[in-house]
Design brief:
With about 140 residues, this protein is of the alpha+beta class. It is built from four helices and five strands.
């Protein structure tokens, strides 16, 4: 997996923000807390957490939660995203989140984090080769 173009201080800020976000997850069914932190071009960070629903498809993942907040603030200048789950092993965005994020930043750097401090550095392009996009619509 490739390295992200983030300096160590920014990477640390992003991972810590994802950890904070995970603490706010609403996960009464799975107890699988996920947090995401989306870095914008001005250095600001938008946090998101997964939110479950008794009707499982009605829930939302942490990554889409953060991106939706940014988009609703008219911000589409995504620089990087960090995602963290409740286990030591780093987690990656699910397929829906990969597709959703690729709409706004095909090469977005992704920090896949584990609770033990491990980080896998990759990108949306690496996680979702051949993403469906506007060109596919004809």
């Amino acid at each position: 997996m490739s390295a992200t173009p983030l300096d160590p201080a920014t990477e640390t800020r992003l991972v810590e923000a994802a950890k904070r976000a995970a603490e706010r997850a609403y996960v009464p069914y799975s107890n699988f807390q996920v947090g995401a932190a989306l870095l914008l071009s001005d250095g600001s960070i938008i946090e998101g957490a997964n939110i479950e629903n008794a009707s499982y498809p009605a829930g939302i993942c942490a990554e889409r939660s953060a991106a939706a907040i940014a988009i609703n603030q008219d911000r589409r200048d995504f620089v990087a995203i960090a995602v963290i789950g409740p286990r030591d092993e780093p987690i990656t965005p699910c397929g829906i989140c990969r597709q959703f994020l690729s709409e706004f930043a095909k090469t977005l750097p992704v920090l896949c984090c584990g609770r033990d401090g491990r980080i896998q550095r990759t990108s949306i392009a690496e996680l979702l080769p051949g993403a469906f996009d506007a060109e596919a619509l004809g």
